[in-house]
Design brief:
- The protein has one domain.
- 37% of the residues lie in helices and 21% in strands.
- The chain is an alpha+beta fold.
- Strands 1, 2, 3, 4, 5 and 6 form a six-stranded mixed sheet that branches.
Length: 213
Amino acid sequence: MLAFDEKEKCLFKHYKSVIESFTFDEYDVLGFLILIRRHLGGKHPYIREFADLIAHRSRNQGMVMDAIAAAIDNAYETEGGSKSIKGYYGIQESAWRKDVEGMLSTFGITYTEQTILDFSLCVYSITQYTQYEYCRKNGSHYKGAIELFQSSTDELCLCTTEGKRDSLYVCFAKMGRYRFNKMFPAGHIQTAVETFREEETLHLRTTQGEVII
């Protein structure tokens, strides 16, 4: 089992069990990612990106920080006639899925399509409101955060923003399809959320108890 010590083996046994039995929620995923983080090495870069972020909730480097800095440096200018921001590179859903599947396989965890959707929902929920800030030696200052959005095509989106009143929101990653019970104005989920389970079904709700998914 990779290079787990005896205590890590005990912890991993729990997380493997709850993932395979569909009894996990974001609190399990939080602990699981922190546990496996040092064992990822150079593999599974997207999992590592979020494991590092989740462990600290504030970062000054990484893929998301690079994307925020690129958007600011390029004044949110788009490439040609597209909606893509120059230099802003997010995570494609296909690449994210491949990384999650690869990570689960690496750790010997049996999974299905529902595992991928549920795991992703947990990661997205945990990532809400995480912060980014970096100052270069030349004095350039970059600051941003991640917020959650719903798309019109039933996807949940991680969007970066500088957090100012007039700041733009740029989609860094999206995952779907989810069945939304509630749609927020402009799709912006402006209240804290958490995952929970009813039997084996994972849901997303506001901290006031309103079910979103």
